Amino acid sequence: PFTKTVFALEPVSSFRRFIKDKAKKENITNVFSLDGFLDSIPLPDNSADFLMTSNAIGWNLEYELKEIERVLKPNGQAIHLLLDPGGKSENPLHKVLTSSPWQYSLKEIDYENSLKLKYFKTVKKE
Q1: pLDDT per residue over 12-27, tens digit each?
Q2: pTM score, two decimals?
């Protein structure tokens, strides 16, 4: 209800089917599941206002972050949610996400007796 169109990127066909079935069951007509990976997003440059991942980044991190910034419009928002098994110092993604050139901010969130890390930034483009 908060956006015109949602693209759910999912490489696993059974999960894409789940997304489609759930949207249909709940009469949601603006969600479209796409086959793909974060390091090769099947969307045009500057086409998304907002991109969110949940425990999905890190397989090919540098390429994923470049691709995310490619598809975001100027001043688009990127958010990455990660479960935190042992503190941000133990999270191998933390150093990359918070350092140059990425410079994500971090907010730690208590979530159901565990910690969730929320990395976020506004993507500036020239």
Answers
A1: 999 999 999 999 999 9
A2: 0.88
